[in-house]
Amino acid sequence: MDENSQKKWNLQITAATTPRRKEKPPPPWVNMNWFERILFCIKVPVRAVWCTSNIAMFFLVYFGFMLPVVWFKTIWPRLYWAYEGKLYRWLQAFIGYWGYTAGYDVVEYGDDVKQYGEEERVLMMINHQSTADVPVLMTILQSKGVACRKTLWLMDIMFRWTPFGIIGHNHGDYFIMQGKA
């Protein structure tokens, strides 16, 4: 076999074994008619304003309910933490609902960890990949009974002065600076 035919043979094998790129489907925007596009352009900012106002109102309501009972923290801590836990659970329900309004449904499968949290203390560590996972985690925690109100979050320090961070600080969540020992 001469050198020229050897190169052709290698190229043919390479071309046959190299996976071909799959054609990407067109974005949904392409398949929409003008009415759907206009509706989409209206719906996105309205939903963003709704979510932002929702958390702002909850922030005010949370502290409106917490200020009258803040003195319970030293006198009757069990009542204080039960009350605060209920409000914290409502906060998680609000944030978990955002995923539902965006069209995401959460389906759980596998072992149910709810049974472990009823009688004993449980440490469950979840490493989520992005901030988009937080509403999903909060949705999942809603069905876990006591675990929802006793959840502690480990957050980056940049969230400390956001509404969720201020409520989280009151709840006992931890804030860390990444990269620092």
From TrEMBL:
Pfam families this protein is in? Acyltransferase (PF01553)
Query: Example GO molecular function term?
Result: acyltransferase activity
Q: What keywords is this UniProt entry annotated with?
A: Membrane, Transmembrane, Transmembrane helix
Database matches in InterPro entries: Plipid/glycerol_acylTrfase
TM spans (from-to) = 55-76
Domain spans labelled Phospholipid/glycerol acyltransferase: 118-175
Q: What GO biological process term is on the record, naming one?
A: phosphatidylinositol acyl-chain remodeling
Q: Name one GO cellular component term.
A: endoplasmic reticulum
Q: Which domain of life is it from?
A: Eukaryota
Name of protein? Phospholipid/glycerol acyltransferase domain-containing protein
Native organism = Plectus sambesii
